[in-house]
Predict the structure.
Amino acid sequence: MNAEKMDRAVEAAQWYKNLKETNNEAFLPLFFDQHRFLVLKGGGGSGKSIFAGRKVLERVTTEPGHRWLVCRKVARTLRESCWAQLVRQTWDFYPQAGTKINKSDMTITFRNGSAILFAGLDDVEKLKSIFNITGIWIEEASELEEGDFNQLDIRLRTDFDQYLQMIISFNPISITHWLKKRFFDRKDPRARVHESTYKDNRFLTQEAIRTLEDFKETDEHYYMVYCLGQWGVTGKTVFNGKAVGERLQHLTPPIQEGLFEYDLAPDGIHLSNIRWVEEKGGPIRIFAAPQPGRPYVIGGDTAGDGSDWFVAQVLDNITGTQVCTLRHQYDEDTYTRQLYCLGLHYNRALLAPECNFSTYPVKLLGLMGYKKIYVREVEDDFDGKIRHAYGFRTDRLTRPVIIAELVRVMRDHLGGVNDKTTLEEMLTFVRNDKMRPEAEPGAHDDCIMALAIAHYVRPQQSMQIAQPQAVGAAKWSADMWQDWEKAGQAEREMMIKLWGPPPR
């Protein structure tokens, strides 16, 4: 390595060392992120705004020719927030950048020709004069309407020899906000989403931490939204919001993500060669693999009544622990086949798909030969006799029962819920003006309803571990033979795994 290259390497190492010493570790990778949208969701004191200012300054001082726009909804709020912060950071960390500060126009210019401009979205005349924008930082983006954001997005289109980026920092004040729908519910490949709390900020004083944590007792909603950075709700949550918030802080990632693939028979019904395919961000999230002989139940909530999600919740029937979830915007037949594969995977679990809006999943499962489907009692309209039908029906009588049971279970066993989306739905499951529990407007309750169904149907499934049998050693009962004769190829493959091959 020649002297020039060595000098550059030493300089780069010193630069990164300084960056690590003066920034929070949680944000360090974001200095190198080049997505068009860098979305910083977090609570107060998390350091997200301090990081945003540092990244802006890193770029404008090292990449000549920037015209970076910093904005908020209202112009007068800029001077005491972003303007004051960036001026202070400029003097603290970039004293050699040849900075010129114009207080009246609120502009910061640098020796290399870069400039930082400040404008509120209510300052129409100033916005008209701003052009050739190379980067944008929107502070408190939750104050903006989506139309405001779109106008800014359009402005970020100049020719520039560096990447264009919009930094979006905000507190998640409402679960129904357009920011959640645009960047969290829908996965935009141009966006990188980052979440932080005050616990990520090592520069906070103990006094500041104590002040934030006092809100646990004095204002639970404020603590959840403005301290923990969780999506806010407007109604009274049905579940214990504080406990749900705490559980969200201690989740571990799933051990597997993906879906099942299979070969479809010419009849369009039966499956064979079922195999698991690993896929990051896939519709099935596994938190605990199936254990031999262990009984499982699966509750399903199908899309309908304004919902566009198909969901399944898998429970260990002995402990009630959530071991797997399925959530996707499937067609009914694709959802049913994934449900079928999931049932086989979890030891021929008891399946309880909802049949409110369509009986198709239940019928297809029957045609495919799946035998362990939840059976409900139905009173005949003609003679009042009780008959039996497959699948779970959520109506005005069963809905309050299964929700009440789920609330009771969650009161003591919330630690058994491992899925982030399910917990977030609990935070938005509120009582309306008539005290009816339902999802807050704009939110979903598919995961909650599927979980409630799964817990309710548990008594129809065994709660004991089946004794393991040596391959080929199981004594086949008449019921086992009957299941074998009616089973399709995929179910027979699973039976052999469970019981060994049938005795000849």
Remarks:
- Residues 102 and 161 are 27 Å apart (CA to CA).
- Residues 3-22 form the longest helix (20 residues).
- The chain has 16 helices and 20 strands.
